[in-house]
Automatic annotation (TrEMBL):
GO terms for molecular function: 1-phosphofructokinase activity. It comes from the Bacteria. It is an enzyme of class 2 (transferase). Residues 15-292 form the Carbohydrate kinase PfkB domain. This is 1-phosphofructokinase. InterPro entries: 1-PFruKinase (IPR022463), Carboh/pur_kinase_PfkB_CS (IPR002173), PfkB_dom (IPR011611), Ribokinase-like (IPR029056), Tagatose/fructose_Pkinase (IPR017583). It comes from Haloechinothrix salitolerans. Its EC number is 2.7.1.56. NCBIfam families: 1-PFK, pfkB. The keyword ATP-binding applies. Belongs to the carbohydrate kinase PfkB family. It holds the Pfam family PfkB. It catalyses: beta-D-fructose 1-phosphate + ATP = beta-D-fructose 1,6-bisphosphate + ADP + H(+). Keywords: ATP-binding, Kinase, Nucleotide-binding, Transferase.
Amino acid sequence: MIVTVTANPSLDRTVEVDRLHRGAVQRALTTSVDAGGKGVNVSRALVAHGRPTRAVLCSGGFAGLELLALLRETGVPLREVRVTGGIRSNLTLAEPDGTVTKLNEPGPRLSTSEVDAVLDAATEAIIGEADWVAGCGSLPPGMPVDVYARLTERAHALGAQVAIDTSGAALDACLAAGPDLVKPNAEELAECAGAEIRTLGDAVKAAQVLRDRGAGAVLASLGADGAILIDDSGARYATARLDAPVVSTVGAGDATLAGFLAAGGTGEHALRTAVTWGAAAVTLPGSSMPTPNDLGRVTAEVQRSIDPDRVLTK
Ligand SMILES: Nc1ncnc2c1ncn2[C@@H]1O[C@H](COP(=O)(O)OP(=O)(O)OP(=O)(O)O)[C@@H](O)[C@H]1O
Ligand SMILES: O=P(O)(O)OC[C@@]1(O)O[C@H](CO)[C@@H](O)[C@@H]1O
Protein backbone atom coordinates (compact mmCIF):
# COMPACT_ATOMS: atom_id res chain seq x y z
CA MET A 1 0.00 0.00 0.00
CA ILE A 2 1.29 3.44 -0.91
CA VAL A 3 0.13 6.37 1.21
CA THR A 4 0.48 9.79 -0.41
CA VAL A 5 0.54 13.04 1.55
CA THR A 6 -0.45 16.30 -0.16
CA ALA A 7 -0.54 19.28 2.20
CA ASN A 8 -1.17 21.69 -0.67
CA PRO A 9 -3.61 20.03 -3.10
CA SER A 10 -5.32 21.97 -5.86
CA LEU A 11 -8.14 22.10 -8.31
CA ASP A 12 -6.24 22.00 -11.59
CA ARG A 13 -8.09 24.04 -14.19
CA THR A 14 -6.81 23.57 -17.73
CA VAL A 15 -7.79 26.21 -20.29
CA GLU A 16 -6.97 25.54 -23.92
CA VAL A 17 -6.13 28.53 -26.11
CA ASP A 18 -5.06 28.77 -29.77
CA ARG A 19 -2.01 30.75 -28.83
CA LEU A 20 -1.23 32.65 -25.65
CA HIS A 21 -1.13 36.47 -26.06
CA ARG A 22 0.06 38.31 -22.95
CA GLY A 23 -2.08 41.36 -22.13
CA ALA A 24 -4.96 40.42 -24.49
CA VAL A 25 -8.54 39.28 -23.84
CA GLN A 26 -8.67 35.76 -25.25
CA ARG A 27 -11.47 33.24 -25.68
CA ALA A 28 -10.76 29.76 -24.39
CA LEU A 29 -11.35 26.80 -26.71
CA THR A 30 -12.08 24.34 -23.90
CA THR A 31 -11.76 24.14 -20.14
CA SER A 32 -11.52 21.17 -17.82
CA VAL A 33 -10.92 20.55 -14.13
CA ASP A 34 -8.91 17.75 -12.50
CA ALA A 35 -8.25 16.94 -8.86
CA GLY A 36 -4.63 18.00 -8.43
CA GLY A 37 -1.61 18.31 -6.23
CA LYS A 38 1.37 16.03 -6.63
CA GLY A 39 0.51 13.32 -4.10
CA VAL A 40 -3.12 13.31 -5.21
CA ASN A 41 -1.89 12.67 -8.77
CA VAL A 42 0.34 9.81 -7.61
CA SER A 43 -2.69 8.20 -5.92
CA ARG A 44 -4.85 8.79 -9.03
CA ALA A 45 -2.25 7.04 -11.21
CA LEU A 46 -2.02 4.11 -8.77
CA VAL A 47 -5.80 3.70 -8.64
CA ALA A 48 -5.92 3.77 -12.45
CA HIS A 49 -3.61 0.73 -12.34
CA GLY A 50 -5.56 -1.07 -9.61
CA ARG A 51 -2.82 -0.51 -6.99
CA PRO A 52 -3.70 0.03 -3.32
CA THR A 53 -3.20 3.60 -2.15
CA ARG A 54 -4.63 6.17 0.22
CA ALA A 55 -4.37 9.93 -0.28
CA VAL A 56 -3.95 12.11 2.81
CA LEU A 57 -4.76 15.69 1.88
CA CYS A 58 -5.95 19.01 3.22
CA SER A 59 -9.38 20.17 2.19
CA GLY A 60 -11.17 23.43 2.83
CA GLY A 61 -13.61 25.89 1.24
CA PHE A 62 -15.78 25.27 -1.82
CA ALA A 63 -12.73 24.31 -3.86
CA GLY A 64 -12.04 21.62 -1.26
CA LEU A 65 -15.55 20.20 -1.65
CA GLU A 66 -15.15 20.11 -5.44
CA LEU A 67 -11.76 18.44 -5.09
CA LEU A 68 -13.18 15.75 -2.81
CA ALA A 69 -16.11 15.15 -5.16
CA LEU A 70 -13.75 14.75 -8.13
CA LEU A 71 -11.52 12.40 -6.17
CA ARG A 72 -14.45 10.25 -5.05
CA GLU A 73 -15.40 9.85 -8.75
CA THR A 74 -11.92 8.52 -9.48
CA GLY A 75 -12.19 6.03 -6.59
CA VAL A 76 -9.14 7.25 -4.65
CA PRO A 77 -9.43 6.25 -0.96
CA LEU A 78 -9.06 9.44 1.08
CA ARG A 79 -8.04 10.65 4.49
CA GLU A 80 -8.94 14.32 4.47
CA VAL A 81 -7.81 16.95 6.95
CA ARG A 82 -10.33 19.80 7.11
CA VAL A 83 -8.60 23.19 7.20
CA THR A 84 -10.10 26.67 7.63
CA GLY A 85 -8.70 28.25 4.47
CA GLY A 86 -9.92 27.28 1.00
CA ILE A 87 -7.59 25.05 -1.01
CA ARG A 88 -6.05 26.59 -4.12
CA SER A 89 -6.94 26.51 -7.80
CA ASN A 90 -3.98 26.17 -10.18
CA LEU A 91 -4.34 27.29 -13.77
CA THR A 92 -2.77 25.68 -16.83
CA LEU A 93 -2.92 27.53 -20.15
CA ALA A 94 -2.45 24.88 -22.83
CA GLU A 95 -1.54 25.57 -26.47
CA PRO A 96 -2.04 23.04 -29.29
CA ASP A 97 1.72 22.49 -29.79
CA GLY A 98 1.99 21.10 -26.22
CA THR A 99 3.29 24.35 -24.65
CA VAL A 100 1.87 24.81 -21.17
CA THR A 101 1.98 27.89 -18.97
CA LYS A 102 1.16 27.16 -15.35
CA LEU A 103 0.07 29.52 -12.56
CA ASN A 104 0.13 27.91 -9.12
CA GLU A 105 -1.45 29.69 -6.16
CA PRO A 106 0.33 29.61 -2.77
CA GLY A 107 -2.52 27.76 -1.03
CA PRO A 108 -4.28 28.47 2.29
CA ARG A 109 -2.39 29.48 5.44
CA LEU A 110 -2.35 26.57 7.91
CA SER A 111 -2.34 27.00 11.69
CA THR A 112 0.02 25.04 13.94
CA SER A 113 -2.79 22.68 14.91
CA GLU A 114 -3.66 22.10 11.24
CA VAL A 115 0.00 21.26 10.52
CA ASP A 116 -0.06 18.74 13.40
CA ALA A 117 -3.36 17.33 12.12
CA VAL A 118 -1.78 16.63 8.70
CA LEU A 119 1.16 14.78 10.30
CA ASP A 120 -1.19 12.84 12.60
CA ALA A 121 -3.49 11.88 9.72
CA ALA A 122 -0.48 10.70 7.72
CA THR A 123 0.75 8.66 10.69
CA GLU A 124 -2.66 7.01 11.14
CA ALA A 125 -2.81 6.16 7.44
CA ILE A 126 0.68 4.62 7.58
CA ILE A 127 0.15 2.43 10.64
CA GLY A 128 -0.01 -1.23 9.70
CA GLU A 129 -0.80 -0.46 6.07
CA ALA A 130 1.92 1.41 4.22
CA ASP A 131 5.04 -0.02 2.56
CA TRP A 132 5.77 3.41 1.11
CA VAL A 133 4.77 6.96 2.00
CA ALA A 134 5.11 9.63 -0.67
CA GLY A 135 5.25 13.23 0.58
CA CYS A 136 4.64 15.39 -2.44
CA GLY A 137 4.40 18.99 -3.57
CA SER A 138 4.97 22.50 -2.30
CA LEU A 139 4.16 23.51 1.27
CA PRO A 140 1.26 25.88 1.93
CA PRO A 141 1.96 29.03 3.99
CA GLY A 142 2.34 28.20 7.67
CA MET A 143 3.68 24.70 7.06
CA PRO A 144 7.21 24.45 8.51
CA VAL A 145 9.95 23.73 6.06
CA ASP A 146 11.02 20.57 7.95
CA VAL A 147 7.61 18.89 7.64
CA TYR A 148 8.87 16.25 5.17
CA ALA A 149 11.78 15.52 7.51
CA ARG A 150 9.26 14.97 10.33
CA LEU A 151 7.10 12.80 8.06
CA THR A 152 10.19 10.75 7.15
CA GLU A 153 11.09 10.16 10.80
CA ARG A 154 7.54 9.10 11.70
CA ALA A 155 7.23 6.78 8.69
CA HIS A 156 10.60 5.15 9.37
CA ALA A 157 9.61 4.58 12.99
CA LEU A 158 6.55 2.72 11.65
CA GLY A 159 8.60 0.64 9.22
CA ALA A 160 7.53 2.36 6.00
CA GLN A 161 9.87 3.63 3.29
CA VAL A 162 9.65 7.27 2.24
CA ALA A 163 9.69 9.04 -1.12
CA ILE A 164 9.72 12.85 -1.30
CA ASP A 165 8.89 14.95 -4.37
CA THR A 166 9.23 18.62 -3.56
CA SER A 167 11.37 21.63 -4.33
CA GLY A 168 13.43 24.45 -2.82
CA ALA A 169 13.82 24.71 0.94
CA ALA A 170 11.45 21.78 1.64
CA LEU A 171 13.64 19.47 -0.46
CA ASP A 172 16.82 20.77 1.20
CA ALA A 173 15.36 20.28 4.66
CA CYS A 174 14.12 16.71 4.15
CA LEU A 175 17.51 15.28 3.13
CA ALA A 176 19.00 15.13 6.64
CA ALA A 177 16.16 12.81 7.76
CA GLY A 178 17.28 10.23 5.16
CA PRO A 179 14.29 9.71 2.85
CA ASP A 180 14.70 6.45 0.90
CA LEU A 181 14.00 8.24 -2.38
CA VAL A 182 13.72 11.78 -3.70
CA LYS A 183 12.26 12.61 -7.13
CA PRO A 184 13.46 16.03 -8.28
CA ASN A 185 13.13 17.25 -11.86
CA ALA A 186 16.20 18.75 -13.53
CA GLU A 187 15.54 22.26 -12.25
CA GLU A 188 14.88 21.13 -8.66
CA LEU A 189 17.97 18.93 -8.75
CA ALA A 190 20.16 21.79 -10.00
CA GLU A 191 18.85 24.16 -7.33
CA CYS A 192 19.26 21.68 -4.50
CA ALA A 193 22.77 20.61 -5.53
CA GLY A 194 23.77 24.21 -6.30
CA ALA A 195 25.06 23.14 -9.71
CA GLU A 196 24.27 23.83 -13.34
CA ILE A 197 22.87 20.79 -15.17
CA ARG A 198 23.67 20.78 -18.86
CA THR A 199 24.59 17.15 -19.47
CA LEU A 200 23.69 13.69 -18.17
CA GLY A 201 27.02 13.65 -16.33
CA ASP A 202 26.07 16.89 -14.55
CA ALA A 203 22.74 15.32 -13.51
CA VAL A 204 24.45 12.20 -12.11
CA LYS A 205 26.93 14.33 -10.13
CA ALA A 206 24.16 16.53 -8.75
CA ALA A 207 22.12 13.46 -7.73
CA GLN A 208 25.18 12.15 -5.90
CA VAL A 209 25.31 15.43 -3.93
CA LEU A 210 21.74 14.78 -2.72
CA ARG A 211 22.70 11.22 -1.74
CA ASP A 212 25.74 12.52 0.15
CA ARG A 213 23.38 14.80 2.07
CA GLY A 214 21.10 11.93 3.11
CA ALA A 215 18.81 10.71 0.29
CA GLY A 216 18.98 6.93 -0.14
CA ALA A 217 18.27 7.03 -3.87
CA VAL A 218 17.58 9.77 -6.39
CA LEU A 219 15.13 9.36 -9.26
CA ALA A 220 15.66 12.51 -11.31
CA SER A 221 13.15 13.12 -14.08
CA LEU A 222 14.68 14.96 -17.01
CA GLY A 223 11.64 15.92 -19.10
CA ALA A 224 11.93 14.78 -22.74
CA ASP A 225 15.33 13.23 -21.91
CA GLY A 226 13.81 10.56 -19.63
CA ALA A 227 15.10 9.86 -16.12
CA ILE A 228 18.14 8.71 -14.16
CA LEU A 229 18.23 6.55 -11.05
CA ILE A 230 21.21 6.79 -8.72
CA ASP A 231 21.37 4.39 -5.79
CA ASP A 232 23.84 2.08 -4.03
CA SER A 233 24.23 -0.01 -7.18
CA GLY A 234 25.26 2.95 -9.35
CA ALA A 235 23.58 5.07 -12.00
CA ARG A 236 21.11 3.98 -14.67
CA TYR A 237 19.47 6.01 -17.39
CA ALA A 238 16.09 5.39 -19.03
CA THR A 239 14.58 6.96 -22.12
CA ALA A 240 11.15 6.63 -23.68
CA ARG A 241 10.03 6.68 -27.30
CA LEU A 242 6.50 7.98 -27.86
CA ASP A 243 4.03 6.85 -30.50
CA ALA A 244 1.81 9.88 -29.98
CA PRO A 245 2.22 13.65 -29.75
CA VAL A 246 3.01 15.48 -26.52
CA VAL A 247 -0.27 17.00 -25.28
CA SER A 248 0.44 18.12 -21.70
CA THR A 249 3.45 17.55 -19.48
CA VAL A 250 1.56 18.60 -16.32
CA GLY A 251 1.68 15.76 -13.79
CA ALA A 252 4.18 13.68 -15.80
CA GLY A 253 6.57 13.71 -12.86
CA ASP A 254 3.82 12.41 -10.59
CA ALA A 255 3.02 9.57 -12.99
CA THR A 256 6.78 8.83 -13.03
CA LEU A 257 6.94 8.53 -9.25
CA ALA A 258 3.73 6.47 -9.17
CA GLY A 259 5.15 4.03 -11.74
CA PHE A 260 8.42 3.73 -9.82
CA LEU A 261 6.68 2.94 -6.53
CA ALA A 262 4.11 0.63 -8.15
CA ALA A 263 6.99 -1.41 -9.55
CA GLY A 264 8.63 -1.88 -6.15
CA GLY A 265 10.47 1.40 -5.63
CA THR A 266 13.93 0.15 -6.55
CA GLY A 267 15.98 -1.17 -9.48
CA GLU A 268 15.86 -1.31 -13.24
CA HIS A 269 12.30 -2.58 -13.66
CA ALA A 270 11.00 0.24 -11.47
CA LEU A 271 12.98 2.79 -13.49
CA ARG A 272 11.58 1.45 -16.78
CA THR A 273 8.05 1.50 -15.38
CA ALA A 274 8.56 5.04 -14.08
CA VAL A 275 9.60 6.36 -17.47
CA THR A 276 6.80 4.44 -19.20
CA TRP A 277 4.10 5.92 -16.95
CA GLY A 278 5.67 9.42 -17.13
CA ALA A 279 5.91 9.40 -20.91
CA ALA A 280 2.36 8.02 -21.23
CA ALA A 281 1.13 10.93 -19.08
CA VAL A 282 2.44 13.54 -21.53
CA THR A 283 0.23 12.10 -24.29
CA LEU A 284 -2.87 12.95 -22.21
CA PRO A 285 -4.60 16.31 -21.68
CA GLY A 286 -4.37 18.46 -18.53
CA SER A 287 -3.09 16.53 -15.54
CA SER A 288 -4.73 13.25 -16.59
CA MET A 289 -2.95 10.17 -15.24
CA PRO A 290 -2.26 7.22 -17.55
CA THR A 291 -4.23 3.96 -17.40
CA PRO A 292 -2.84 0.57 -18.51
CA ASN A 293 -4.38 1.24 -21.97
CA ASP A 294 -2.18 4.33 -22.41
CA LEU A 295 1.12 2.54 -21.78
CA GLY A 296 1.22 0.90 -25.23
CA ARG A 297 2.16 4.27 -26.77
CA VAL A 298 5.55 4.17 -25.05
CA THR A 299 8.69 2.12 -25.56
CA ALA A 300 11.12 2.58 -22.69
CA GLU A 301 14.74 1.49 -22.58
CA VAL A 302 17.17 1.39 -19.64
CA GLN A 303 20.92 1.90 -20.12
CA ARG A 304 23.55 1.03 -17.55
CA SER A 305 26.33 2.84 -19.31
CA ILE A 306 25.65 6.54 -19.31
CA ASP A 307 27.23 8.97 -21.76
CA PRO A 308 28.20 11.79 -19.36
CA ASP A 309 28.62 14.26 -22.23
CA ARG A 310 25.12 13.80 -23.59
CA VAL A 311 23.61 17.30 -23.63
CA LEU A 312 20.11 17.56 -22.16
CA THR A 313 17.37 19.25 -24.17
CA LYS A 314 16.04 21.34 -21.25
N1 LIG B 1 8.40 16.38 -23.86
C1 LIG B 1 8.40 15.13 -23.40
N2 LIG B 1 8.48 14.07 -24.26
C2 LIG B 1 8.48 12.80 -23.82
N3 LIG B 1 8.43 12.46 -22.50
C3 LIG B 1 8.38 13.46 -21.61
C4 LIG B 1 8.36 14.82 -22.00
N4 LIG B 1 8.29 15.59 -20.89
C5 LIG B 1 8.25 14.72 -19.85
N5 LIG B 1 8.32 13.44 -20.28
C6 LIG B 1 8.27 12.22 -19.46
O1 LIG B 1 7.73 12.56 -18.19
C7 LIG B 1 8.69 12.36 -17.15
C8 LIG B 1 8.57 13.47 -16.11
O2 LIG B 1 8.82 14.73 -16.73
P1 LIG B 1 9.42 16.00 -15.96
O3 LIG B 1 10.84 15.77 -15.63
O4 LIG B 1 9.10 17.19 -16.83
O5 LIG B 1 8.57 15.97 -14.61
P2 LIG B 1 8.14 17.13 -13.59
O6 LIG B 1 8.81 18.42 -13.93
O7 LIG B 1 8.34 16.57 -12.24
O8 LIG B 1 6.59 17.22 -13.92
P3 LIG B 1 5.34 17.69 -13.01
O9 LIG B 1 5.92 18.55 -11.89
O10 LIG B 1 4.42 18.46 -13.92
O11 LIG B 1 4.69 16.44 -12.53
C9 LIG B 1 10.04 12.28 -17.85
O12 LIG B 1 10.96 11.51 -17.11
C10 LIG B 1 9.67 11.65 -19.19
O13 LIG B 1 9.55 10.24 -19.05
O1 LIG C 1 2.76 23.93 -6.42
P1 LIG C 1 3.24 22.49 -6.34
O2 LIG C 1 2.69 21.79 -5.14
O3 LIG C 1 4.72 22.36 -6.49
O4 LIG C 1 2.67 21.75 -7.62
C1 LIG C 1 1.28 21.63 -7.79
C2 LIG C 1 0.99 21.08 -9.17
O5 LIG C 1 1.52 21.93 -10.20
O6 LIG C 1 1.63 19.82 -9.29
C3 LIG C 1 0.82 18.93 -10.05
C4 LIG C 1 1.57 18.50 -11.26
O7 LIG C 1 2.75 17.85 -10.89
C5 LIG C 1 -0.47 19.66 -10.34
O8 LIG C 1 -1.57 18.80 -10.15
C6 LIG C 1 -0.49 20.83 -9.39
O9 LIG C 1 -1.20 21.94 -9.89
